Amino acid sequence: MTPDRPLVIGHRGASGYRPEHTSAAYELAFAQGADAVEPDLVLSGDGVLVLRHENEISGTTDVADRREFADRRRTATVDGQEVTGWFTEDFAWAELRTLRARERRPGSARPTPRSTTASACCPSPT
């Protein structure tokens, strides 16, 4: 970074090209010239910091497709709103690592063919 160049920060990695908060998104952000990435952190049930935007993970992982975790679905209050889904604090890190990341909004105008084809690409790093 030099004074004549702005600081470039990849928000959640290169989330317009890869599912957010994945190794693939972070690596691509740096390959595209980001100086840094801005992560969000939540806790697993066993106290491991997990790189996710929020603790409810059904929108960004395949947890809803995993029968072994069906009993973990619940309703909780998040930022004053009732939210039903699966929450990182109800899982050990070893369980969260088995989940596959997916594109948050596959039907929106934001995802590109690159981001939707990368869906279900990888677990969330710590």
Automatic annotation (TrEMBL):
Classification via SUPFAM superfamilies: PLC-like phosphodiesterases
The keyword Signal appears for this protein: yes
PROSITE patterns membership: GP_PDE (PS51704)
Pfam name, any one: GDPD
The protein's name: glycerophosphodiester phosphodiesterase
Keywords for the protein's UniProt record, in alphabetical order: Glycerol metabolism, Hydrolase, Signal
Reactions the enzyme catalyzes: a sn-glycero-3-phosphodiester + H2O = an alcohol + sn-glycerol 3-phosphate + H(+)
